[in-house]
Amino acid sequence: MDTVAVGPVGMRVSGLSLVGIDPGTVASLQALLSEHGVLVLPDQDIDDGTFVAFLQAFGQLTFSTGETPVPGCADLNLISNVGRAVPPKSTFHVDTSYVSRPPAYTALRAVQIPRSGGQTLFSNQYRAYDTLPDEVKDRLRGRTITHVVTGLDLGPDDETSAEHPIFREHPVSGRTSLYLTTAARCRSISGMGEDETRETVQYLLEHSTREENLYRHAWSPGDVVMWDNGCVLHRADHEGVVGDRVMHRGMVADYPQRIAA
């Protein structure tokens, strides 16, 4: 397989088939994800069964309660604008961060591509941490954010909030990332009041998602894009979409053991 950087975050991996992927290739992809955050895997003529098998090679799959499953494939989440009079809303976020062990990896398979628009944006949260001013790092070091669920109908046994460090050591790479999610799900920062929490979260999100820290993925037929929720934020750009946009999403529950340097 051949790899090339696509921007400040992400690698394009070409010459790789996801059909019957072997453990050695999976380990290589895990290492790339832990360092580069996003993998673009083009020209994949696969169905949902092959997509699920590919994800299962990375570990046990997980599904967020309250999301819409793909008909006939309960492991995958349907993401679609079909039949919607109002475009969906999306802000930069981490998937399902309101649980104590958020999903390690998320992947999207392009099922139907709009005629124009519909990019997915990713931010480099390693770089976001590295470029924080020293005084901000000093003020936030050791603090946590309480992440809460919004917009989903959960059952009585489902987790609805979890506390995570703002500066999170990645369990595979050992590098530090700035770990937060959409502002509505960041309820509080330890040791801060409501106003200071809101201002701090807004500052951190604006810092993380500056244009020079983003990769904008324009979808092509056959694309599979996989990312590491521990070191990137992402959002869909639904402005100006012309045509149907249908994605199937799968998530892997946990990371492998740390890859030796």
From TrEMBL:
Protein name: Taurine dioxygenase
PANTHER family, A to Z: ALPHA-KETOGLUTARATE-DEPENDENT SULFONATE DIOXYGENASE
Organism, scientific name: Allobranchiibius huperziae
EC number per UniProt: 1.14.11.17
Entry GO CC: cytoplasm
Lineage: Bacteria, Bacillati, Actinomycetota, Actinomycetes, Micrococcales
Biological process, per Gene Ontology: sulfur compound metabolic process
One Pfam family hit: TauD
Top enzyme category: oxidoreductase
Family to which this protein belongs: Belongs to the TfdA dioxygenase family.
Keywords associated with the record: Dioxygenase, Iron, Metal-binding, Oxidoreductase
